[in-house]
Amino acid sequence: MDMATNTASTATTGAGNGPHGPGDPTLTGLAFADSGFDGQFLRVLDTIPSGGADVGEAFITARRIPEGDRDAWNLEWNALGERILAEAEESLTAGHRVSAREGFLRAATYFRISGVFMYAPPLDPRFVTANARQRDAFRRAAELMDHPFQQVAIPYEGTELDGYLATPSGPGPFPTVILVGGYDGTMEETYVAGGVAALRRGYAVLMMDGPGQGAALVERDLHFRHDWEAVVTAQVDWLVARPEVDATRIAALGRSWGGHLAPRAATAEHRLAAVIADAPQYAPGANAALLLPEDHRDDLDTGEADDDLNAAVRAGMEQSPGLAFSVGRGMLTHGCATPVEYLRDLTQFTLVGIADRIDCPVLLTVGQNDPRVVDAQSFFDALTAPKTMIEFTNAEGAGEHDEAGAAVLFSQRAFDWLDTVIGR
């Protein structure tokens, strides 16, 4: 397939695995019956190939957590982070730099995941601590990296946002990947969720908490915006002035919610050479009303009966931990005081009518078992730029959200595609 031409259009399923279908086993029920807990646990395991976790300590920690107990979730993952951090400090004191770096990196994952179920206003002090501890542990690891690694500040709308620029060893300039994280991720997580794989292949990587993410949310009270090109354009402006960066080969890799934000940026930021949207979401705002009881869904657009709508959503949140997590997280990251305010803000997030403005090659990657990618085919059909879509299947052990549990396979396919379209 010729992915570099202006007419390229390819959709593929997972290769080399024979037939697959709804009867294939899935990578679920690993440690918890609760799908939210189990999904976050798999998210931890997914960082193992990049050094972000280890199998035994992660499983044993999970087995100490009672089903559905979010306080215990925070307590146990935080305790693991503290233990691994202390051991890393002992290794560093004794001069064992590699062991120390590996420990600090794992501790960062465990601290971060300890606060993941506390995304809701007002900020829980434990959530604030989790964010700070994961950042500090990560920076301890960064000081010991074998490749160049810098803490940087990116100008953004009259202020600056913190970030990291990591480059391979050796002379540049390097093709560069902007890592766009998701709803409840941090820039530190993007290092083990794409950054390491990119660096191994000779790419520089820029990691930054945008509005609604990580420190930009917790410490600066900045919230998600639908026009994400404002964020990526600031990043590209900064990158093109860097001698380490090949300004003609800057790509964006968005994962989870970043699978909507990165292509949204590409509708207006035309200096991007390629975009990868993992868990591509074409019109996620169109699903906002689905979080309401069916008999209230038509009321979201009217602006009427908001007290009744909010009461209905809050009643649902009391009955469903999953709904409580989704709405609470959305209220916090979007800066909304009520559930209905969040749902209305979410309706702005759509690529309908603007997807054809993307003019660089696009890769959409979807997990067979991921409910977030229900409109991926519509997104693919709306694109007029060179485009490829790859389905990762349950039969491959890669069918979950963001292909969690199949990080090596995802990196192989995504970066092989990127190597091709930007001429590596």
Extended strand count: 9
- What is the CATH homologous superfamily assignment of the largest domain? Alpha/Beta hydrolase fold, catalytic domain
Structural class: alpha/beta
Quick one: biggest sheet? Answer: 9 strands, mixed
How much is the average pLDDT? Answer: 93
Helix content: 40-55%
What is the second-level CATH architecture of the largest domain? 3-Layer(aba) Sandwich
The side-by-side strand order for the widest beta sheet comes to 1-9-8-7-6-4-5-3-2
Q: Kindly, what is the distance between the CA atoms of the first and last residues, rounded to a whole number of angstroms?
A: 16 Å
Low-pLDDT segments, ≥5 res: 1-7, 15-19
Query: CATH class of the largest domain, anyone?
Result: Alpha Beta
Order of helices and strands: EHHHHHEEEHEHHEHEHHHEHEH
Shape: globular
Chart the SSEs and their pairings.
Blueprint (H helix, E strand, L loop, with lengths): L8 E4 L22 H11 L9 H9 L6 H24 L3 H18 L10 H18 L6 E8 L2 E8 L7 E7 L6 H14 L3 E5 L5 H5 L10 H11 L5 E11 L2 H9 L7 E5 L27 H14 L1 H14 L4 H8 L15 E6 L8 H7 L4 E6 L14 H15 L3
Organism: Dietzia natronolimnaea
Keywords: Hydrolase
Protein name: Dipeptidyl aminopeptidase
